[in-house]
Specification:
By secondary structure, the chain is α/β, with parallel strands linked by helices. The protein contains 9 helices and 16 strands. It has a 6-stranded mixed β-sheet, sandwiched between helices. It has a 5-stranded antiparallel β-sheet with strand order 1-4-5-8-7, with no helix packed on it. Strand 9 and strand 10 form a beta hairpin. It is elongated, with a radius of gyration of 22 Å. The chain starts with a strand and ends with a helix. Bound molecules: zinc ion (ZN). The site of zinc ion has 6 residues, from loops.
């Protein structure tokens, strides 16, 4: 039977000693539109195998145990997973995920990093491509014909929480809240169609965010983030546009570093050398135009943001962000405020303030279009 595959894998190098049990520290699930991600925090040297069928997926781990603190995190259900169960079969611990359909299962392991101290086993259940009815696809494609498409990207998501404030506010959550408000605001304008890169708590690799913009034939890309630095007093909004050279200021360097390395937190099997990948999808002929347009857009949006709150820098900044490398379309990254500043953290989690920020970005977008109209 084609689907009854059993795969034996070894996580890490070396072998676990027989008398010591392998610890499964924690479980997390993330539901995305096209897949569900299961993440298991494990020890190094964990032997496991994965068995896939139409009705269930079994993850077997030799000689393992689960922490009582996190035991309940295993039980989960969503549109793909009906329920999860744990069974002991002699020395083997079996985690059984009852599924609603046959999914193509992809799995990989990730080593610890700055944000995750354990090894991670990632199991992705992907919908089979054919499951989407053709008619629905056709409707989706034609529904926003003749409209200007604006891609609104909520930074981070899923395994990658982004920056975290003193009161535990997570950047990924406020980014999504503001992004959703921005999309709703933009979509009240009948000439525009705003689309979210993610509309839930799951991770999307940086380069995929760019391909979404291309597939949607977007003509503008706005990525929403919140800043964080060690000092609690830093405040204000900033806007970044792409500079292939990067930026020499300390803050921008730190930001580039943290924003460009998120794929390893979010969980990307092989973090692609983004520049290599991007070189193959980018054409350079209109880069100059893109940069000038991005600069114009950034200036308008920053001006509007300065009317509703402090700004960190008076003019748009340049940095080498992977997510801004959308070919030919104006692209900006908005750092809405500093989540590391307790006053600004409160502001970012307040729904009225989120709407004010969304409105200001929208006004900036409209001013940008107006200016371009005048120049025609
Ligand atoms: Zn961010």
């Amino acid at each position: 039977m084609r689907y009854f595959l059993t795969l034996f894998l070894l996580l890490g190098i070396g072998s676990a000693s027989a008398d010591k049990k392998t610890m499964l520290y924690d479980f997390r699930y993330w539901t995305a539109p096209d897949h569900t991600r299961i993440v298991v925090d494990t020890q190094e040297n964990t032997f496991f195998d994965i068995f896939t069928s139409k009705d269930y997926i079994i993850l077997s781990v030799e000689n393992a145990k689960v922490l009582s603190d996190t035991f309940s995190h295993l039980f989960f259900q969503d549109k793909r997973i009906e329920r999860a169960q744990i069974k002991r079969d002699h020395e083997t611990l079996k985690l059984i995920f009852y599924t609603k359909d046959l999914y193509s299962v992809k799995y990989f392991t990730l080593p610890p990093n700055q944000k995750y101290k354990y090894h991670r086993l990632v199991i992705d259940l992907y919908d089979s491509k054919s499951s989407m009815p053709k008619s629905k696809m056709a409707i989706e494609k034609t529904s926003h014909i003749d409209k200007t498409v604006i891609l609104v990207d909520a930074g981070h998501g899923g395994e990658d929480s982004g920056a975290v404030g003193n009161n535990r506010t997570r950047e990924k959550d406020v980014n999504l809240a503001i992004a959703r408000r921005l999309v709703n605001t933009i979509n009240k304008n009948k000439d525009l169609n705003a689309v979210l890169t993610r509309n839930g708590d799951y991770y999307i690799p940086l380069t995929k965010r760019i391909t979404i913009a291309q597939n949607e034939q977007a003509t503008m890309f706005i990525s929403i983030h919140a800043d964080a630095v060690e000092s609690k007093s830093a405040k204000g909004a900033s806007i970044y546009t792409l500079s292939e050279k990067g930026n020499n200021s300390k803050l921008a360097k730190q930001l580039e570093q943290s924003e460009n390395s998120v794929d390893q937190f979010g969980g990307v099997e092989t973090v692609i050398d983004s520049d290599q990948y991007l070189k193959s999808i980018l054409t350079d002929f209109s880069r100059q135009d893109r940069d000038a347009q991005s600069q114009k857009l950034a200036t308008h949006v920053l001006k509007e943001l300065s009317k509703i709150g402090p700004v960190h820098k008076e003019s748009p900044q340049k940095a080498n962000f992977v997510v801004l490398k959308t070919p030919t379309i104006p692209s900006i990254l908005v750092e809405t405020a500093f989540i590391s500043n307790p006053t600004q953290e409160r502001r970012l989690s307040n729904s009225k303030e989120q709407q004010k920020i969304a409105d200001a970005i929208y006004k900036g977008v409209i001013d940008y279009f107006d200016e371009n109209q005048e120049n025609l």
